[in-house]
Amino acid sequence: MNDTASDNELLLDQDGHLQNYQDWTPEIAQLMAQKDGLTLTPAHLNILYAVQKFYQQFGYAPATRPLIKFLMKELGDQISNAQLMQDFQTGLVARTLARLAGLPKPANCL
């Protein structure tokens, strides 16, 4: 599945995740979020940067529980699954955050 961002072609896998996470930019995240009806704020981007940090440290896209624990450590105790569901307008927190952060789909996501 391919998607176009300006004149550059974004290569996405069958699940809508970037094929190469190094292609990620905040602008690409914004384009991907807009397809979900979401406009990313600086707070959203801080969360996505933290998700990328998890990936760089551990080498895989996190499932929800380790993701929440990591985000609480990185960004403070105000992070919760319910808050992320509301902020990102999704019931699939780990998968949505991984996709918007340019990462592969977490292994345990359907």
UniProtKB/TrEMBL annotation:
Q: Which residues cross the membrane?
A: none
Q: Name one GO molecular function term.
A: sulfur carrier activity
The lineage's top-level taxon is Bacteria
* Enzyme Commission code(s) on record: 2.8.1.-
**Is Membrane a UniProt keyword of this protein?**
no
Q: What Gene Ontology cellular component terms go with this record?
A: cytoplasm
Swiss-Prot/TrEMBL GO biological process terms: tRNA wobble position uridine thiolation
Q: Which residues form the active site?
A: C109
Keyword annotations:
Cytoplasm, Transferase
Q: Name one Pfam family in it.
A: DsrC
The enzyme class is transferase
The answer to whether UniProt assigns keyword Cytoplasm to this entry is yes
In which compartments does the protein localize?
Answer: Cytoplasm
Q: What does this protein do?
A: Part of a sulfur-relay system.
Q: Which family does it belong to?
A: Belongs to the dsrC/tusE family.
Q: What is this protein called?
A: Sulfurtransferase
Q: Which organism is it from?
A: Alkanindiges hydrocarboniclasticus
